[in-house]
Amino acid sequence: MRRPQSENAVAVKPLWSHLFAAPNSNKTRLAPSFRAEKVTCPSSSGPACRGRRSSRDRLFIGFRQRLLHATTYVIDIVALGDAAFMTPGCESSWTMQSVLESTAVPKVVFDIRSQSNALFTRFGVRLGNIHEIQLMEVACRPTSRVYVSGLVKCVWTCPGLADADKQHWVSRKAHYRELCNPAYGGDDALLERRPIEPAVVDMCATNIESLPILWDTYKAQNGGLSMKRILTATRERIAASQASDYKTQGKHMTFAPPSLQVRRASFGRYR
């Protein structure tokens, strides 16, 4: 006898039908334009809303396929719980956990460390085939590769974006920071309110929208050997984030991996 589905599981199914097709279909290749994001990630390059409250009531995940006018989906993990990861699609057996863990499906993210820590410690999700934009940007630099950059700086310095687009994006980020950061007069409980405030959904979408152009720009500047080093460094980042004593705050979050702090000429593609 089949177990009755929970309300949460039923709520997830319509979303999966839009995102996941059968495993042998090319529609399962969501990336490169996927981001798993913990909105209140307290890292140096995390989203603008940082506070002292626990992040367990502020976990969202955003998906976006790599299409010019693709829809961005923001999933409230707090409301859905385990059902968000375990519910299969209407037309396939794919779940969000199987996609996140799949080595065949590339996922593009920015600074995966705190996100990976939250997904692993709370839901047992072991991320696979992650393309880490923050590390791709480090590998693009000819010099000064000791420290990582935040998302705002990457967008602001991206040669693939027009100046007007950069200014608009940065202005939106500053607006959301003022909404939910007490240091700027905002309310740090904004992310915990249900139903979710429209501003929170737009904030998640804003972060995700910047990823495709960043990936295209950095991928074009990094050769094959360089990308192999980046993927290796990313796997090491994920493994470190799954340690029981991992800390998501501290000076260590500002440093690039030692393996990327080498001269670019040794990466096999010097420009």
TrEMBL record:
SUPFAM superfamilies: Ribonuclease H-like
Transmembrane segments: none
Record-level Gene Ontology MF annotations: nucleic acid binding
Signal peptide: none
InterPro entries: RNaseH-like_sf (IPR012337), RNaseH_sf (IPR036397)
Name listed for the protein in its UniProt record: 3'-5' exonuclease domain-containing protein
Source organism: Akanthomyces muscarius (Entomopathogenic fungus)
